[in-house]
């Protein structure tokens, strides 16, 4: 059973930065993609960023230029660097491994004015 665990969320002022971490219990190289999603209260879970096995990153339009996804195969870790945070970035952020996918429990990000 693959275990996925997010960390790094918290309370930050608008314009600030946070780095989320995703720890995976097995090699992330076995997964075609690693993704970050987010879900705001009362809304659906949306895809934020994707990192392919080959290292290609893609982003939702709402976070392009502000968020960066990266991975460390040696540590079985995936990261989401979030800069210039906005109030609308407030959500629970989830890491998803593979196309199944395997989900983590989520980490809360709250952006205040």
Task: Please outline the helices and strands.
Blueprint (H helix, E strand, L loop, with lengths): L3 E4 L2 E4 L4 E7 L8 E7 L5 E8 L4 E3 L7 E6 L4 E6 L8 E7 L4 E2 L3 E6 L1
Parallel strand pairs: 2-11
Antiparallel strand pairs: 1-3, 3-8, 4-5, 4-9, 5-6, 7-8, 9-10, 9-11
The helix content is: under 10%
As a whole number of angstroms, the C-alpha radius of gyration is 13 Å
| Number of helical elements | 0
Helix/strand-derived category reads mainly beta
- What would you call the shape? globular
Overall mean confidence score, pLDDT: 97
Unreliably modeled segments: none
Number of DSSP E strands: 11
Largest sheet geometry: 7 strands, mixed
Query: What's the SSE pattern?
Result: EEEEEEEEEEE
Report the sheet-strand fraction: over 45%
Distance between the termini: 40 Å
